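User: two proteins, same treatment. go.

Assistant:
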Amino acid sequence: MTLSLPGARAAALAAGLILVSALSGAAAPLSEGYHRFSEVEHQLQIWSQEHPEIQILTLGKSAGGRPIYVARIAAQSETPPEERPAVFVGANIAGYHNAGTEAALHLIQRLVDPNAGKDTAALLRERTFYVAPALNPDAHDAFFAKPRARRSGNAQKVDHDRDGLVGEDPVDDLDGDGVITHLRIPDPAGGWLPDPKEPRLMIKADGLKQRAGAFRLETEGKDDDGDGIFNEDGADGVWPDRNFPHAFPYPEPEAGPWPSYAPETKAAMDFILTHRNIAVAVVYGPANNLLAAPQSLGGGGDLGTQTFKLTAQAARFIGLDAEKEYTLDQVWEVVKDSPFVRQNGITKEQVGVFLGAGAATKVDAGDQSYLDKLAETYRERLKKAGLPADRPAEQYAKGGFTPWLYYQAGEMALELDVWGIPKPEKKAEPAAGGDALTLDKVAAMTGDQLIALGEEKIDAFLKANKVPPQFSAQMVIGALKGGQLDPAKLVERIRAMGGGAAGAAGTAGGDSGGTSGNDRERDVLAWVDAHAPEAFRPWTPVTLPDGTKAEAGGLDPFIEVDPPIAVLQSAFEAHTDTILDLAGKLARVEIAALDAKSLGGGVWRVRAVAVNRGWLPTHTKMSERGKFHLPVRLEIETGKGIELVTGHRGVATERLEGTSGTLEAEWLVHAEPGTRVTVRVTTENAGRGVKTVELEKAAGQNGRKGA
């Protein structure tokens, strides 16, 4: 099967396959319509032969010897693809996120579709796209295997339980249904019991709620090595998406012995670091940092919360107390307007380095503001596509690709999960007078209107929307009065934390901890019952080797991220639109003004202004702090009759803001009238600009013959 079909026909075919299976009485496999790794490989080769815009690159090989492909997509133009601003899209490094692979293939197909439209054609001439559909090929086909079990590890050998043996206790398909689900074993000390409201699900025991445990819950399998532990040493190896350097989880065997140990991880890092034109990186994976604002991976030790003591000399110079501790913000308020700081262009980040600030662990506020704006557009796009914009979303984990892209490569990095099971629509509960306080109603209020409701109503609103109890009505009112918050921003933050849900999606059998118990798991099961009933395997009696009676069953391990393919078609369209929109927003530098004025005696004053015409900045704040990319340079060409009289050939800045960012330079040069003077603005990831002015032969007039 190939993706050469137009999107509508492909969707119809997938839906037809599911319908035919239903009419014949046989449930279509959940993997129907998805691409195995060999099919991905074949499809990329077909596209590269049919479309000159596509060049297939190989990053390296997986631990199992499989190639890791990237499709470079760029139309022919005057600027080489390597010099254009670029978007990188990497899918399924998690290994089990096959929906991400399909979304990446959909993006490639749209980019080369002859009916894609003028805007897409223009993007291909001005931008470069790097799309890697399967970054973890060793794990990719676990979705199609029998038995089907979620896998993240590559083909490297890992001693998960550190007993000197490898792969001696994997999972087992005890009920023979071809899917590895869960195993519940009667055990009064096991800590689990059937959910009283939905007995097909399991819920944690809780003494405060008078819920006594009755079962032990394991992944389906048996104790193959007889050590009393189930399935603790599987056949899969290192997880590439836990093997990146940022916040590397050293104690976890699946993360590998050191960062970049997995060949897939190192290949991805090498590609990003050697393709300096990448301006935005998108990971199609199980997390979503536009639906849920990214949390700290290092305990919250971001620059804004750290305190420092100044050296005695620095304290005297600044005028602060050497015995007291200060935050970076406090120090910056004192020094930002001093002549030393202003004359030398010292930034707040440089002051932080001087003070000895540790590694950043939280997204910079300046970068988060861009993520927030992107999130607004993203949610609107999901709504228009009929997709939920308020569903729970996971966070990326330590050692993951996305945090490395941002914290250590300085990229504007997004992780998008493509699809997730929506929250069920809740029936409206009419209040007296129809005054039910909803998220939308609050978002439309002014700050004064919300304050006027009083603490009792605001507290009830926060509680109804599952806001953590430490965020009280009193805090909200104080923030509203102080101008740090408005009702729309309050609602945005509530939705980022789960949007009124009982909590983020967890594994089957988890407990939200709220008064209603297993709310999210019940929502998942309700969706499965309505749309993919074959994804729940009834609890089936099994007998373990020692004679213990148990039951195997539960949700298919892939259903929450990889639903039936027909369900995903609108999500593919929405996410491809998101990538194309991002590409159109990339920073793009050019020379906006260039003029020359004769000062007499063959000396000319040349003035140039470079601007960023893109919506995004040329560098993230994290890149500015870590100096991950070369700065923006504005330079004049000397030689060929042009001699610099004073100053340097160029000026530089670490960052140009989107739309309004400018860089200005002025030079005194010696040249004869009629000489052509060229000025260039150069970046790694925001393109380049060049302009030429001819020095007028009439002394004292400005050069107006710019080209």
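Protein 2:
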Amino acid sequence: MKKLLSLLSLVCGIFCLSWLLSANSLHAAEPSSTEENVITTGVPEGFDDLLEEQLALVDIYYQGSLVNSVMARYTPDSLSFESPEELVNNLPNIANPGILISQLTLPQDTNPSLVCFYPEQANCGVLNPAIAAIIFDESNMRVDLFVNPQLLSKSILNVDKYLPPSTSGTSMINSFSFVAAGGDEREEVYTAQLSTIVGFDNYRVVSNIESDNENGGRLDQLSLIYEYRDLAYQVGTFRSLTQPGGFYQQRDFVGFRINTSLASRTDLEQVSGSRVFVFLNERSQVEVYKDGQLIDSQIYQAGNVELDTREFPQGAYNVELRITGDSGRERSETHFYSKSFLLPPKNETIYFAELGFPEADQTESYPVASEEQVFRLGFLTRPSDYFGFSGSLVSNPEQESIEFGSYWLGNQVELQTNHSINSEKEYANYYLLSLRHESFFMSASYRRTYTDGLTLLNEQNRLIDNNQRQTTFNFGIPLSDAVLNIFARTSEQEDFSVLGTNEYRAVGLNWRKNILRSGNLIVDWTIDATKEDDDQRIGIGFVARFLKTRWNFDSSLIHQSRKRNSVETDHLDKNVRFAYRNLQSSLGRVNHSLELSDTQEQQSATVQSEMSNDYGYGRVVL
């Protein structure tokens, strides 16, 4: 392994050195009155054709889908369409084609800094133009077109409001999931789940069996559901409903529920999850636990990373992130996550009511109800295209709580607030702001709970979490061929067991500049400066990527200067990754990768394999 890493790092070093030497030789070839090398931003003599206009066929993607392929002329800075009329005529729901054609007749800024090169890349692939704008990926001859929503016409759907009553016979669907993680010096953990749905007419029987390394197998949920038009009736054991930004954590429930259902509706249904950002001072493996069970495990590069939450279960709950860096340093964070119905159909309201008993903490092979009865009811409404608000009431033998919130989803802005107060005069607040502009993008959130730490209160009946505060901030500026990001995160949580407070603070900036783009080869210069509690780091280096339709190769050489606990170190971190992606495999969508890393603390090899199709989704990390 050590010899292989050394060989790969030598290849990367030779590549970067040869590129730098070739650049210097080009400058040295220019006439100069002195013997010193001259650095210039212009094109060297004899290479003027590099900036000449190119004519090529480009693929046009609109709203995430391929709509057409047209001829265009482009330079490193701009792109012009040969036939804007043909392009606009192939776009759906354009209210005023003339305005859009006039805009697309002009040369368009290519916005190369906003091209997305890898799945976890933040702040890329999105524009909010005044009229229209594009992102041009020269390596794939792809143009992503963005149009201001005010130029779009509203579609009128002449469809029935409800699906007809079911006349099907008995049917069954099974889905299986398995998540595991571990290492040479770490405990191996796993969680497996088998979900089954048996349907007949408008009835469904839903069951969920799970197993983990600590508790073994058990029946987690079993309930009967009847749905007709807007209402669903459910009895048995199930998971309580949640609201976006809410403070009531999702609980396993034994009882009865009636709620508004969109399953039979043919109009709008949207499900959205809150975004979870985590600051990583080094390449790290992030394991995500819910109620002590592993639900996700992935490896992320250093920086301000947004976690992939697509496979997180629906609901509102605290997730524990167990982070293990390449240095072997371990830490954990707690984040509140919410995935629920965010927008009901316009001018309508979603209701729910639950009555029963939360499941007890004791672990048995079947659900066991606690002795405390809980009653919940709530609503979520949307009186306009962009505005909505919600409210809920919770009552148990020891506390009552009321929550109310609002949200605004505008063209370039998202606002959300949520507030809660209980019978003990404890309260909580949550605020979220996300703003996108042609010149910058910003997101910020603040979550605060205020409690008295009541010692006689049964923790299962606590409706607002113990004193804690979480803040996140991210600000980015896209430049012509670079992106600057500034980010910060703080977390404070009171721990009554030790009469103290757990604190975490991180702040930093990231600067990425493209210095070479030739065919499928892309080279970026990166600078990272971060401070995480007692750990300070500055990383400067190069990232090279060779991108093909299915095969990708990534390599990085980053010089790390680190100061931890007053100890200063310097090291050249080397990383290579080979990836294969096939979106149209007979097995479904598959992604495989092999990654080799050499840092100051350790050398490692990581294999990731991911597959998704109509039958399910799976990922293995070794």
